[in-house]
Amino acid sequence: MSTPGRPSSTLEKTKPPGSRRLTPEQVFATLKGCGLLDGVPDEDICDIVAVARVLSFSAGTDIYREGDPCRGLHLLAKGRVRQYHIAADGRERVVGFLVPPAPFELAAAIDGGPYTSTATALDDSKVVFLPSRALVEIGRAHRFARLNTMMQLCREIRRRDISSTLATLKGAKELVACVLIQLAQQYGVAAPDGFRIDYRLNRQDVADRAGVRLETAIRILSDLTKQGVLHTADKIIVLKDMAALSSMSDCEACHFDCTIFASPSSHDR
DNA sequence: TCATTAACCGTCG
DNA sequence: CGACGGTTAATGA
After folding, report:
1. Local confidence band at A1 (pLDDT 50, 70, 90 cut-offs)
2. A69-115 pLDDT tens trace
């Protein structure tokens, strides 16, 4: 009933002027903000800018595919990326929705093994790419980079572990509730009517993230909407009753720490 | 075309 | 049996 108020601002991803190149300042900002180089002096980051490459991907194209050999580290500088596995039956299991300035597939970047997921650009995106050779050099030169990378890698592992383990422990309703809570940790911002998940997601995205069928996700989200727990406008989900969500997902009895899904900067220590 | 609803059906506790 | 969730078809925007 209540009007979202700004339907005109819906970005048309069909014709953005996004083909503009990234400035060195933007590359620097991505490197500086990605969390891996905290504690590394700015002038050293500038040296890294010099060896970084910038890759462009239009919406809907793959950045890499699961199983591809990894040749370096990707850092999302602009746009949005969907990271997922493709199951034998064709279903997609989303392991992450990325937002700048996020590093992704750290494990593959570090050990040089194949990518463990497929990454598709949701919007026109820019990626800062550091070749493996540069990574080795950075690791050799900067102790902080090594520490930060280990911490970030741990976050990645824990997030995936929670997601995959949860799938074996919970039913569809609980899974959807958990996913909403996790997304709220990651992208939640305060809104007048509750907590808004600041990331445009269709129902299929939610379903693939929770590991349930599209119709099941729709059924559950529809029920939750009727119960006044949330509402959706223009692919943005607003959570109005977090307490109801956490009771639905049985958070009390759960030993997993969902705060690992929050961005590291907002939860650092 | 895509989101949603509804009816149906097999599985499992 | 009955809840649950996947499958399928019909309907709606």
Report:
1. very low
2. 999 999 999 999 999 998 888 889 999 999 999 999 999 999 999 99
Distance from CA(A216) to C1'(B7), angstroms, rounded: 14
Nucleotide B10 C1' to residue A221 CA (A): 24
Q: Kindly determine whether the C-beta of residue A218 is less than 7 Å away from any atom of nucleic acid strand B.
A: yes
| DSSP letters spanning A93-114 | EEEEEE-SS-EE-HHHHHH--B
A204 touches strand B (CB under 7 A): yes
How many beta carbons lie within 10 A of that of residue A242, not counting itself? 17
Helix axis angle for A132-141 and A42-51, nearest 10°, is 160
Residue pLDDT, tens place only, A242-264 = 998 888 888 888 888 889 999 77
Hunting for tokens 């989200």 — which residue is that? A221
* Beta strand segments in chain A, E: 53-57, 62-64, 72-78, 81-86, 92-98, 103-104, 118-121, 125-131, 188-191, 194-197, 230-233, 236-239
Amino acid at position A236, single letter: I
Taking residue A14's Cβ as centre, other Cβ atoms within 10 Å add up to 7
How far is Cα A222 from Cα A225, in angstroms, rounded to an integer? 5
